[in-house]
Amino acid sequence: MSHAIYVFDAYGTLFDVHAAVRRNAEAVGPDANALSAHWRAKQLEYSWVRSLMGRYLDFWTLTEQALDHAFASFPSTDSSMKPALLDAYRKLDCYLEVPEVIKSLKSQGKQLAILSNGSPDMLASAVSAAGLDGVFDEVFSVDAIAAYKTDERVYEIVTNHFRVYPEAVSFQSSNRWDVAGATAFGFRTVWINRAGLADEYNDLPPAAILASLDGLAGL
User: Fold this and answer.
1) Per-residue DSSP letters for 13-80?
2) Same structural domain for residues 127 and 195?
3) Cα(62)–Cα(119) distance, rounded to whole angstroms?
4) How much is the pLDDT for 1?
5) What would the DSSP string read from start to end of 106-173?
6) In a 10 Å sphere around its CB, with 0-12 CB exposed, 13-18 middle and 19+ buried, how is residue 162 labelled?
7) How confident is the model at residue 153 (pLDDT cuts 50, 70, 90)?
8) 121 closest CA partner among 143, 93, 153
9) Are residue 24 and residue 79 in the same domain, yes or no?
C-alpha cells in the first residue's frame, strides 16, 4: 500500500537525545553517559505518570525536572552545567541520514509531519537547528490535547488534521512503546531500532524494523 503521509516521532527518531550531554561530556564529569541515560529515562517516565494521573505538565518542564533528578542521582556530575545542557537540548543533532531521507520523501510528493511529546518551542528549535525549516508540512505537539503518547488522542491529531483514515499514515518511531501505541491506533508503523534492542509488545508488531531511517523511502 502506498502511504500519502509520513509521520515521525522527534526525540530518538529524528534527533539524538544524548547529543546534549555528549557535547558537554568533559565538563559534566565521568558519569556523563550515565547521567544522559537517566535523564532520558526519567523524562519519559514523568510523561507516562503525568498522563495516567491526568496532571499534565509540558515536556520542557518535565525535561528540566528529569535533569534535576539525574544530577541528584549522580553527584559526581557538575550540576552547574544545567543551563548549558538545557540549551544544548533545544539544539540537538539530528541523525546523519535524516535530511536526505526526509528530502527524498518530500520529492516523492509525500506529506510529512512530526508528532511529538515535545512542546512547540522545543520542536521549533530542534527543527531549525537541524536545517529542516520548511520541510515538514506540520509539526504536531501533544500540547494540543494536554496528554502524552500512547494516548490514542495523540495519534488522532494526525488523522483529524489531514482528514484521513489511520491506514493512510506511515508512522516512524525509535521508541517501541510508541510504535505499539501507533499500531493499536491503526497506523502502518516502522520501528527505527537504532540501538538493536530486543522486540516487545508482540501483540502489536511494527510493519517493518529498520536500523535507521535509511531504506524508509523504499518501503
Assistant:
1) TTB-TTHHHHHTHHHH-TTHHHHHHHHHHHHHHHHHHHHHHT----HHHHHHHHHHHHHHH-TTS-GG
2) yes
3) 10
4) 54
5) HHTT-EEEEEESS-HHHHHHHHHHTT-TTT-SEEEEGGGTT--TT-HHHHHHHHHHHT--GGGEEEEE
6) middle
7) very high
8) 143
9) yes
What are the residues whose beta carbons fall under 8 Å from the beta carbon of 107, sequence distance 6 or more? none
Q: Are 108 and 30 in contact (CB under 8 A)?
A: no
Active site residues: 9
Q: What is the CATH number of the domain that holds 26?
A: 1.10.150.240
Integer Cα distance of 218 and 114 in angstroms:
20
pLDDT of residue 218: 80
pLDDT at 217 (0 to 100):
82
Q: Into how many domains does the chain fold?
A: 2
For the chain, give the mean pLDDT: 96
The verdict on 28 and 39 lying in the same domain is yes
Let me know whether 83 and 174 are in one domain.
Answer: no
Cell numbers linked to 209: 524494523
Helix (H, G, I), strand (E, B) or coil at 182: helix
Select from 5, 216, 200 the least CA-distant residue to 208. 216
Are 131 and 149 in the same domain? yes
- Please state, in angstroms and rounded to a whole number, the distance separating the CA atoms of residues 86 and 64: 7
CA angle 22, 24, 25 (to 5 degrees): 60
Q: Residue 120's CB: how many other CB atoms inside 10 A? A: 17
The dihedral through the CA atoms of 123, 125, 131, 135 has a sign that is positive
Q: Taking residues 184-192, what's their average pLDDT?
A: 98
43's grid cell: 523524562
